[in-house]
Amino acid sequence: MYDAKSVNGMVPQPPPSRMDFSTFESPLDFDASGASFDDDGGRFVAGEQFYNHEMYGSLRKGGAVDFLSMECLGLAAATFTSMLSYQALIVLVQPMYNTQLGLSPSQIVAVNRLVQMPMALSFLVGLLSDCYPIMGLRRKGYMILGCIINGVSVFAIAGVSAALSDNKDASEGMVILALILVALASIGCIITYVCVHTRVIEYSQRESLRDRGAIQASYLIFRRVVSIFTSVLSFLALGTGSEPNMSVSAAMIVLGVISVLPLPIIFRYWNEEVYLLNTSMKTRSQILWKIMQQKAVWRILAFIWFFTLFLGIKFSDSTGVVTKWAGASGDNSLLVKTIQDLVMIGIMLIWRYLFINRLWPIFFALAPAFQILPNLFVSLMVALDIVRNRYFYRVFYSMTYVSDGIGLLNTIVPVTEIVQEGSEGALVGLTLTLQRCVNIFVDTNANGIFKGTNYYNAAEVAKDTSDARWDVLLSLFLNFALNALAWVGLFFLPSQKLDAQQLRMYGGFTKAASAGIIAFCLALFIYGLIMTLMSLFPSTSCFVLVGGSGC
User: Fold this and answer.
1) Could you report how far apart the first and last alpha carbons of the chain are, in Å?
2) φ/ψ bin of 62: left (φ > 0), alpha (ψ from -120 to 50), beta (otherwise)
3) Which sequence ranges are marked TM in the entry (predicted)?
């Protein structure tokens, strides 16, 4: 707005300034500006005009929240149903595959991979939630939708299971229907997971620089607690005998009821800002395409790729041989899973209170170290028949769960610093899609090129000969060498929070990165899909690449 005098050609007078200051004093009135001098040492303390703590201390307005507060009650309820639904679904549906659908062991492995492949749609779920909010809610609306899809599918699985009874000669149509329902339930779980994960990152961006990550630790700890509860529930349903304690239909009904129970709490207590501006998929995709070209983004995705791939490679057959030699193969599965979850909870607490503001490469470098060193030591002791004791084995092997705990943080801690407002769901979904595509590749090759029996003779192992011991050890040495390649990913990881933000703002762009990321994810997904489909048909399941013994 112009002053009338200036419009008429007159030069406006400058505002009055202080002239009564000494030679070494500033003319600025510190009291009025919000700054002051420390009474004790005369140290200058910047006021609000010099440093806005709310602006520079956090990445998003709103203030920090506690995961276990009333404000996050809806989010906690959503986390509960998201974690329980997926973990229990994968376990409780297993008896239906062999007792009712008549699938072979190799087909069951393939089906398990097939129904988990929809997780690769996380990118699409996140993009849709960013573009088209449901009733103005980008996360809550899709969270409720995913919960309903999962619940309806689980109840439908219960109906199909009840109709099949113990008939192993189920028609092809019934088999396809059952698998489609399991896939739909899996899709519902994926939608809820993307919404919960994205919302946690949005809350985390509201935390100050010093405390950012606190809600992430609480969230991940709560997920492990729910995992323990789910393991107990699954153990009670399946039991330890050849026959489950509950029928599949009854177990599915119980799971469905528990999964939808948190819905009223989510309706009432999920807090989220209303977002009424719809953005077309084309516009949002173009924005995401540009975001993927940012150096900070593709470097963090490269780090996630290295860690997910090389720490995910495990020669389970070779590890199983060592476990059997140690006399630990018959250990209670519930106890082993609970120990794993407790170790991971401990890692979350250690990170929260000791490493939250330390250099990322130092912390994440511990993951390959704890996966390799304890495993190497106990494998040598057991395989060479120096110490073969189940308790000795379990103590040292449990140390490898530290790596699993650190692995939980690699898709949430660095990503929080690079997520941009408006594209949160798409970028978080892209991260989860990349992780799932790599997992699909690893799981697909677990019965192929990463199969331990490719490197030793099972008959010699049964005799426990010296040659067999070294063959098993050499296969594990190869496994550990592949695990060590995860350290290469640390070269792509920013040093800490501020470094990641600086890299995002001033690191520049790499135009080929977007196409490379999409092409890479598609290649891994298509490879896994082809290998999985090949293992379903007898004419192609004999190939060694898909886990067969040769055609």
Assistant:
1) 84
2) left
3) 73-97, 117-135, 142-164, 176-196, 217-238, 250-270, 296-315, 335-355, 362-384, 472-493, 514-537
Work out the angle at residue 236's Cα, subtended by the Cα atoms of residues 233 and 237, and round it to the nearest 5 degrees: 85
CATH number of domain containing 84 = 1.20.1250.20
User: Using CA atoms, how far apart are residues 513 and 519, in angstroms rounded to an integer?
Assistant: 10
Spatial distance between the Cα atoms of 221 and 106, rounded to a whole number of angstroms: 35
Dmax (CA) for the chain in angstroms is 105
Instruction: Give the residue numbers spanning the domain of 366.
Output: 288-528
Round to whole Å and give the CA distance between 178 and 156: 9
Q: 39 falls in which pLDDT band (50, 70, 90)? A: very low
| pLDDT tens-digit series, residues 416-453 | 999 988 889 999 999 999 999 999 899 888 877 888 78
pLDDT in tens, 384-399: 999 999 999 999 999 9
| DSSP bridge pairs for 45 | 36
Tell me how far apart the alpha carbons of residues 78 and 60 are, in angstroms, rounded to a whole number. Answer: 22
| Residue with token string 């303390």 | 45
- When divided into structural domains, the chain yields a total of 3
Residue 172 CB contacts under 8 Å (≥ 6 apart), including other chains: none
Compute the half-sphere exposure of residue 501: CA atoms within 13 Å on the CB side of its CA.
Answer: 11
With 0-12 / 13-18 / 19 or more C-beta atoms within 10 angstroms meaning exposed / middle / buried, residue 41 is exposed
Give the SS3 label for residue 135. Answer: coil
d(C-alpha 350, C-alpha 408), whole Å: 13
Query: Residue 59: inside a domain, yes or no?
Result: no
> Minimal CA–CA distance to 430: which of 493, 334, 522?
522
Q: Give the CATH number for residue 342.
A: 1.20.1250
Residue 544 CA to residue 454 CA, distance in Å, equals 10
Query: Are 18 and 167 in a shared domain?
Result: no
pTM of the predicted structure, to 2 decimals: 0.86
Distance CA 440, CA 432 (A): 12
Non-local CB neighbours of 207 within 8 Å, separated by 6+ positions: 58, 64, 213, 214, 215
Please classify residue 83 by burial: count the beta carbons closer than 10 Å to its beta carbon, then call 0-12 exposed, 13-18 middle and 19+ buried: buried
